[in-house]
């Protein structure tokens, strides 16, 4: 029986993985702590580790895992910017879950848009306090407004379909074009300059790469339509948060819905309700009435968690069977894919 050391465990993780594991029979040991240099020792004797977005899989962690007998790193997420792929290459294979429920993430992005537009979060608090005034809760029709979608992967395509259902005009930026999808859904590809200048709502649905790191910054915000709504369900570091705050303070950014935050690993998925938030930037964000921050929950649906558990354990099983790892992330192949402008491993 193969052993899996499971890190950063929450009750919902164990529930769904135990359910799916009935079909596989792995011996899973669950640890609530994050995987890092200090906790890698817990994986000694395990055949594989299962890690999540806030685990730190550095070169030293990879070395400690391998010396402890680990043969595979299985990520139960799509993103892998927390993994030193160069150190892993030729040492430990890394697999991921490339798509668990694009509908879940796209629907959450729209939920943020709707709440910000119609001030639902503020209305909820008012009514509970016995305040039934609607002054200050004015929104706008999304019909015929312009939405800019950055990243037209599976999530981006689901989002486009929803926004088209509202009757919005959708513009898309992506280095890799799907012309058939664009034609079939009556959307147009534009460059970032045009997307920034014309969009009433901008949604970030792209991966974090050296090219996209802090793509939303002081310069790009200055190019946007005044009062723009920015939605980020992708990766926190797509946005320079201090620049976003400056944009909010002067009204250049009208509102922001953030399911991710660039320094989220310290706080997200944990309960700090009885503590003081020491991150001054995050604390400042939470003071804005026109900002909604959710704790990286866009993926959090029953369907998505079941898909995550299923794909993760299938990845592990396929590895130990010696089969082709369709969901492997390979440092060498990633570089070749980028050079050839193709997508295979990421």
Description:
- The protein contains 13 helices and twelve strands.
- α3 (85-88) links the parallel β4 (72-75) and β5.
- It is α/β, with parallel strands linked by helices and 346 residues long.
- A seven-stranded parallel sheet has the order 8-7-6-9-10-11-12, sandwiched between helices. A five-stranded parallel sheet has the order 2-1-3-4-5, covered by helices on one side.
From the structure above, extract its key features.
globular, 346 residues, 2 domains, 7-stranded parallel β-sheet, 5-stranded parallel β-sheet, disordered C terminus, 36% helix, Rossmann fold, alpha/beta
What's the short version?
With 346 residues, the protein is of the alpha/beta class. The chain has helices at residues 11-21, 59-67, 85-88, 102-118, 120-128, 154-165, 179-184, 192-198, 218-222, 241-250, 280-285, 302-321, 331-340; strands at 3-6, 27-30, 48-51, 72-75, 94-95, 146-150, 169-173, 188-189, 201-204, 228-232, 253-258, 291-293.
């Amino acid at each position: 029986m193969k052993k899996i050391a499971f890190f950063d465990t929450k009750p919902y993780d164990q529930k769904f993985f135990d359910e799916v594991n009935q079909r596989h029979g792995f011996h899973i040991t669950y640890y609530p702590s994050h995987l890092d240099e200090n906790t890698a020792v817990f994986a000694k004797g395990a055949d594989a580790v299962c890690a999540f977005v806030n685990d730190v899989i550095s070169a030293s962690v990879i070395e400690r895992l391998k010396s402890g007998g680990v043969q595979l790193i299985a990520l139960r997420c799509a993103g892998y910017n927390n993994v030193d792929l160069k150190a892993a290459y030729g040492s430990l294979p890394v697999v991921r879950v490339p798509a668990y429920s694009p509908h879940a993430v796209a629907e959450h992005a729209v939920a943020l848009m709707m709440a910000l537009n119609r001030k639902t979060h503020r209305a909820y608090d008012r009514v509970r306090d016995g305040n039934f005034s609607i002054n200050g809760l004015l929104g706008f029709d999304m019909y015929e407004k312009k939405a800019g979608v950055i990243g037209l992967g599976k999530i981006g395509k689901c989002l486009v379909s929803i926004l088209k259902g509202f009757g919005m005009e959708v513009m898309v930026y992506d280095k890799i074009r799907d012309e058939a999808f664009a034609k079939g859904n009556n959307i147009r590809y534009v460059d970032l300059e045009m997307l920034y200048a014309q969009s009433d709502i901008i949604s970030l649905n792209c991966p974090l790469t050296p090219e996209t790191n802090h793509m939303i910054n002081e310069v790009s915000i200055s190019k946007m339509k005044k009062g723009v709504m920015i939605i980020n369900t992708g990766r926190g570091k797509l946005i320079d948060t201090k620049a976003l705050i400056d944009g909010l303070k002067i009204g250049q950014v009208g509102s922001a819905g953030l399911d991710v935050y660039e320094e989220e690993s310290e706080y997200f998925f944990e309960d700090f309700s009885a503590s003081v938030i020491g991150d001054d930037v995050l604390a400042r964000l939470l003071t804005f009435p026109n900002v909604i921050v959710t704790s990286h929950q866009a993926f959090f649906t029953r369907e998505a968690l079941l898909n995550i558990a299923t794909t993760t354990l299938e990845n592990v099983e396929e590895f130990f069977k010696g089969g082709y790892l369709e969901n492997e992330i390979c440092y060498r192949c990633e570089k070749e894919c980028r050079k050839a402008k193709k997508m295979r491993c990421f």
